[in-house]
Amino acid sequence: MRSKVAVLASAASVLLVLALAGCGGASPSASPSAAAASASASATPSAAPTAHPSLAPISSIDGVAVTGAFGADPTVTFTAPFAIDETRSKVLVAGKGAEIAATSLVDVNYRGVNAYTGKVFDNSWTRGSTAQFSLDGVVAGFKTGLTGKHVGDRVLLVIPGKDGYDSQGGSGDGSILVGDTLVFVVDVVDIDYQKPAGAVVTPAAGLPTVTDADGVPTVTINTAAAAPTATVVQPLIAGSGTHKIAAGDAIMVHYRMYSWTTGALLTDKYSDYDSGKLADTLACWKDGLVGQALGSRVLLICPPASGFPEGNPTPSITKGDTVVFVVDLMFAAPTS
52-191: what fold? Predict the structure, then answer.
């Protein structure tokens, strides 16, 4: 199975990797090779300390105070230095969104502070954009602390060095040494949706019908009826996700594509998924998916002009045929 985070571009996929590349500072990324390269690049002949003097760990995070509303850069205060005994977390603002799984992709804002020095080592708010990454690819404490939380939560995470950067020898820029405890305040903006989540929408009359069996939709088309001559966009489930698809996003989706002429299923992406830049997809996708929220299920009817004007070899689409998609919007992230 391909890396989670690329989409239909006239039946071709464009791979896009969503990661914390270019974040600066010490992000929650946990790539040993990247850390080693960074450390090597920043090494100097002087004998810089590799660890601070050890501290007796405490078992409570009550001494960490956080002020500010969800969505705003928080103020974090505590008495430094301190060390925590194990990864501990607390929901500061409770959201009402979907639950985070250990394998989720997340879209978050976060501020990271070194509990030994009291200094901020990374802050997405100052960069002006959220960060998107898989919990499978971050330090253990970040994954442990967010699993089971919800979209809309503001979470305080306090992570000991053993669950942070100890295995990497600290951060490459020297802002985190071996043994340092990390304090994160994380706002969970959104996650990837493995199935639609939101309010059911009653479709307009006369459209193909969509039924669902165990989360997989089937489209039934009245092939005797004339196909629409203009693109039809019909939300079937209005997603509860916070993020709404933008023209410049890369998106991750489940979808099925059908022929209007034959009613046959042409492509099935429900046992897997597809992902890529929305800008590289069919015109009807670009027109129909912008503004739709994550978690949505959308029916798209694409006449040749906005679908496949010349037909397509694989899957086989006859020139002049209209295609019908049912698309579940799983995840999205800006490409710039």
Answer: Chitinase A; domain 3 (3.10.50)
Class of domain 198-334: alpha beta
What's the gap between Cα 254 and its chain centre? 15
> How crowded is the C-beta side of 21, counted as CA atoms within 13 Å?
7
Q: Is the pLDDT of residue 28 over 90?
A: no
> Which residues in the chain are classed under CATH 3.10.50.40?
52-191, 198-334
pLDDT at 125 over 80: yes
pTM of the model: 0.82
pLDDT confidence bin for 104, thresholds 50/70/90: very high
**Mean of the per-residue pLDDT values for the chain?**
88
> Is the bond leading into 81 cis (omega within 30 degrees of zero)?
yes
- Please give the pLDDT value at position 242: 93
Task: List CB contacts of 40: < 8 A, sequence separation 6 or more.
Answer: none
pLDDT average, residue stretch 99-111? 96
Q: Identify the pLDDT of residue 29.
A: 57
* C-alpha angle 29-74-133 in degrees, rounded to nearest 5: 25
